[in-house]
Design brief:
The protein is mainly beta and 280 residues long. 9% of the residues lie in helices and 35% in strands.
């Protein structure tokens, strides 16, 4: 599924996704089902929200891709045992909703997604109208709110790059290879790919996740661009300038870069951390 996550916000607009599979075919009855279930505690009944979309025509390319959109949350069927029945809304067509609202048969929809920092939505695909679902086409789509980046291990590396770095944050709760990491020193930026993986013991509960990436190179001449003083000098002056530079060449102790992440490869967090580069 591409992408497999998005930033959770109050509008929760529809989200375009690509579902990739194997041996897909089009019978004109393709159905994609999205479902969110609240964690069940004790004997308490389960709260859930559900949406189904029917794709009338599927264009299956060589890479076996179905294009669709996760519907806006306000259109989902919603059930919560703690909420009176008369405020549950089963969304049908616009015309039927208008008639029901006019008759006072339904109340405004409960915004069940608000107040949540993380959501995990199961996605299933059926090619026969919901009679059966593809066994290998059940995935999760994750929605999240960015939180502060808490740690960088290690916190520094050489200017030449190549350091394996791991970042941690409370918002990390799923694995993905869509991560992009942006490092900025002054006006110079470097963007590298990363991945979010489980970094704790698989038997440990809850699991701990981290973003792993390899630090990019930050050449000193890129960080400190300057006009060539020998450009308009005579040959004799050039030689003198070069000799002076060699004898007075400064040594670099460290340069601090500002680090930000995009879990879905698109939307960067406003929360930042730092990574220090050192050199000679």
């Amino acid at each position: 599924m591409i992408p497999n996550s998005a930033v959770l916000n109050v509008t929760c607009k529809s989200i375009p996704i690509q579902l990739q599979g194997q041996d897909l075919f089009d019978l004109g009855q393709t159905r994609v089902e999205f479902e969110y279930k609240e964690a069940c505690t004790g004997e308490m009944e389960l709260m859930f929200a559900k949406a189904c979309i029917v794709i009338e025509q599927v264009e299956l390319t060589k890479d076996q891709t179905i294009l669709c959109r996760i519907p806006e949350f306000s259109t989902w069927e919603y059930t919560d045992p703690s909420v009176p029945v008369d405020v549950h809304v089963e969304r049908t067509s616009e015309g039927e909703e208008d008639e029901k609202e006019a008759e006072g048969l339904i109340k405004p929809i409960v915004e069940w997604w608000k107040g949540k920092k993380k959501l995990s939505i199961s996605v299933r695909v059926s090619l026969n109208g919901g009679i059966s679902y593809l066994p290998n086409q059940s995935e999760n789509f994750y929605l999240f709110e960015y939180e502060q980046l808490e740690g960088t291990v290690p916190s520094s590396g050489p200017l030449e790059g190549g350091t394996n770095v791991c970042l941690s944050s409370p918002c990390l709760s799923f694995c993905t290879e869509d991560v992009m990491v942006k490092l900025k020193c002054g006006d110079v930026e470097r963007v590298v790919s990363g991945k979010c993986v489980v970094v704790s013991d698989m038997e440990t509960e809850p699991l701990s996740y981290g973003i792993q990436y390899i630090s990019p190179e930050f050449p000193l001449e890129v960080l400190n661009p300057s006009k060539d003083p020998t450009q308009e000098a005579t040959e004799e002056e050039k030689e003198q300038i070069m000799n002076e530079e060699d004898s007075q060449k400064p040594t670099l102790s460290s340069i601090v870069s500002e680090v930000s992440i995009a879990l879905n490869g698109i939307d960067y967090s406003k929360h930042k951390t730092t990574f220090e580069y050192y050199g000679e």
